[in-house]
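Morning run. Coffee first, then this:
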Amino acid sequence: MKTYGLVVFDMDGLMIDSERMTFEGYRAVCGPLGYAVEEEFYTTLLGTPEKTVRRKFVEAFGEGIPIESIMDQMHAWLEERFAREGVPVKPGLVELLAMLKAKGIRTMVATSSKRARVDRILEASGLGDYFDGSICGDEVKRGKPDPEIFLKACAKMGVPPREALVLEDSEQGIQASHRAGIPCICIPDMKRPQPEFVEMTVAVLDSHTAAADWIRKKLC
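And here it is:
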């Protein structure tokens, strides 16, 4: 029987079905400016902090791209979409969180997104009450795939990495968890992990429901 003192969740693409929306947002903003954002390029951004996203856009499209304006417009586009349609929570997530809470297992969010955005999304989605804390991208010096964010999550809860579990959707997040010495379940979103990243996980599952079943079996 395995004992988990903490389960750490990524946010975008893992809890919130936002990656496809974000891709649509970049295309909507960049297209009229003459920049064609293709899915192959977009998937290289998944799980990375905003400074890395900015760098990748400049590398792909040149120094002249108005990246700050694009980022501002994309975030505004996404916020308007969430306000109009609601925050799209992944199926089975609430049930998984409720199960962990019932078993007395603490939970945290560890995301590359900034604090203000994270707080808005957790409040709007109704997920905030399920979590014991969060660590955001603007609260660490080094973003994923560096392990800092996950190590800080464990330290904040007083749980050794070996007694924690990470749920991630991106290769960047898998690598960060692996470097932190924390077991990782991957629930892929837009991109399934390559074999070298699969080897860094304890499981690659298709849903939060499957993750709940996996954790439940480990606890028995």
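The longest helix spans residues 67-85. Good start to the day.
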